[in-house]
Amino acid sequence: MVIRNYVREQLQDVPYLEFFPEAYAASVQMLSSGSDLEAAFGRGGFALLSYRTVEQPVAESPIEYLSKVRSRTYSDLAAISDEAFEAGVARMTAVVADGWRRSLREPLGLFALQKV
Asked: What are phi and psi of 12, to 5 degrees?
């Protein structure tokens, strides 16, 4: 089995979350750590074969990324109040307009597990 998902310990490297502290907090609550996932699947009879981080490209430009974030497609953005979301969009918009240069890749955990 292969699992590709965000894990708690990678959140600090998700670019948009620097503008949305409430969404960061929501993600901490929603996501498991890599070791928690390994333990849960271990209880289900799976052994971890490998784990690594992959970086998923999410946009070609900061403006495209901002547009994606504005669509509120991320579950942590949907979980926060409209006021917190609008404040984060305003912070991100100002930084993007000022020439924000950050990797437009998001880290994901890639787990390979085998039934034992």
From this structure: -65, -15
Distance CA 27, CA 83 (A): 18
* Beta-bridge partner residues of 111: 3, 51
Q: Where are the alpha helices (DSSP H) in 1-116?
A: 21-30, 34-43, 62-70, 75-78, 82-97
**CB of 23 closer than 8 Å to CB of 79:** yes
- Residue type for 38, please? E
CB atoms within 10 A of CB 70: 13
C-alpha span between 111 and 115 (Å, rounded): 13
Residue 45, sorted as left (phi over 0), alpha (psi -120 to 50) or beta, turns out to be left
Q: Taking residues 71-78, what's their average pLDDT?
A: 95
* Residue 7 structure tokens: 């894990």
- pTM of the prediction? 0.89
Give the Cα-Cα-Cα angle 65, 24, 78 (nearest 5 degrees): 65
- pLDDT tens by residue, 19-62: 999 999 999 999 999 999 999 999 999 999 999 999 999 999 99
